[in-house]
Design a protein that fits this description.
The complex is a heterodimer of chains A (140) and B (124). Chain A is an all-beta fold and 140 residues long. Helix content of chain A is 0%, strand content 43%. With 124 residues, chain B is mainly beta. In chain B, the strands form 2 sheets. Chain B has a 4-stranded antiparallel β-sheet with strand order 1-7-2-5, with no helix packed on it. Chain B has a 3-stranded antiparallel β-sheet with strand order 4-3-6, with no helix packed on it. The chains are: A mainly beta (140), B mainly beta (124). Strand 7 of chain A pairs antiparallel with strand 5 of chain B, so a sheet runs across the interface.
C-alpha cells in the first residue's frame, strides 16, 4: 500500500492530508507513528473516498480512535462511512471529529481499514479494485 | 451600511426532517422512501456535564433493528455540542433512511442515550 502525506500550513493551523492508494480488506492502517504526524487531540475534518474504479464492491471506511490493536471483524469502530461501488463520496465535519473520542487515546490508537462489508463480525474479502481514500486532519 | 437583499433565483429543493429525540429507538424511513442525504446536524443537549458521547448510526433500510442492523454511516457526537456531518455530493439511500443512536460504538448495543440528542437531516 502506498501512502502519501502532505503537511500544509494555513491561517487556520496545520493541516495534514493522508492519501492512501490501495488497501486490502483486512489491512489495519495505523495513523500514528514515526511516519505520521497525526496524534491524539487532532481532528478529522474531511474524508474523500474515491471508489470509481471499483464497480463491484461497496466499500466501508472504518476508523478507530482509541483502540490499541483493532481487528476489523471484531473491534467496534468509532466511524464508519459507506461509498457505493463506482462512486466517490466526500464527508466533512466543519468543527472536526476529535481523534481521542472517548478520552482514552494516546499513542498508537488511531487506525483505519477499508472493507467491502459493514458487518461487525467480518472483515470482508479482498477488494476487486483499489479505492483511493484521502483524509484531512487539523493538527493541534 | 445598508443591507440589500436580492433573491438569487435559485430554487431550493432540499427538505429537512427534524428529530427531537434521536435515541436507541430507530427512526424508520425518515425520508419517506429513497433520497439523498446532504447533511446531518446533531445537538447533544448537555444534561449533567459528564461529557458523554452518542454514536449516531444511519442505515439505508426501510426498517432497522437496533442491536442487529449494521450501519452504513456512524460517527460520534459529543454532549453539549452542535455537530454537523456534510455529505458534499450527497449520500444516496435507495431503500430508506433509518437513524438511531447509542452511547456505544458497538453494533450490538441497544443501550439508551443518556440525555437528549436533537437532529436535523437535510435531503433531496
Amino acid at each position: 500500500m502506498a501512502k502519501y502525506e502532505t503537511n500544509l500550513s494555513s491561517p487556520f493551523g496545520n493541516l495534514e492530508w493522508v492519501d492512501t492508494a490501495a488497501t486490502t480488506a483486512t489491512s489495519i492502517i495505523k495513523l500514528l507513528g514515526s511516519d505520521h504526524i497525526v496524534s491524539s487531540g487532532d481532528k478529522l475534518l474531511c474524508v474523500d473516498i474515491d471508489n470509481t474504479n471499483n464497480t463491484t464492491d461497496d466499500i466501508f471506511l472504518r476508523m478507530w480512535m482509541h483502540t490499541g490493536s483493532p481487528t476489523a471483524a471484531v473491534s467496534a469502530c468509532d466511524i464508519i462511512l459507506k461509498c457505493a461501488s463506482g462512486n466517490r463520496q466526500v464527508f466533512s465535519w466543519p468543527i472536526g471529529v476529535p481523534l481521542d473520542v472517548n478520552g482514552t487515546g494516546g499513542t498508537n490508537k488511531i487506525h483505519y481499514a477499508i472493507t467491502n462489508v459493514n458487518t461487525a463480525t467480518s472483515a470482508g474479502t479482498t477488494l476487486t479494485a483499489n479505492p483511493i481514500v484521502r483524509m484531512l486532519f487539523s493538527l493541534g | 451600511m445598508a443591507v440589500t437583499s436580492t433573491k438569487s433565483g435559485v430554487s431550493i429543493k432540499d427538505d429537512m426532517v427534524y428529530n427531537g429525540d434521536l435515541d436507541e429507538s430507530a427512526e424508520q424511513n425518515m425520508l419517506g422512501g429513497s433520497g439523498t442525504v446532504y447533511s446531518m446536524t446533531c445537538y447533544f443537549v448537555s444534561d449533567t456535564s459528564d461529557e458523554e458521547i452518542t454514536w449516531v448510526k444511519m442505515a439505508d433500510t426501510l426498517s432497522a433493528t437496533v442491536g442487529t442492523t449494521n450501519p452504513d454511516i456512524k460517527f460520534p457526537v459529543f454532549e453539549g455540542t452542535f455537530f454537523t456531518m456534510v455529505c458534499v455530493d450527497g449520500f444516496a439511500v435507495s431503500n430508506g433512511l433509518a437513524v438511531w443512536g447509542n452511547p456505544s460504538a458497538l453494533v450490538g448495543s441497544t443501550a439508551a442515550v443518556a440525555g437528549t440528542v436533537k437532529s436535523w437531516v437535510v435531503f433531496r
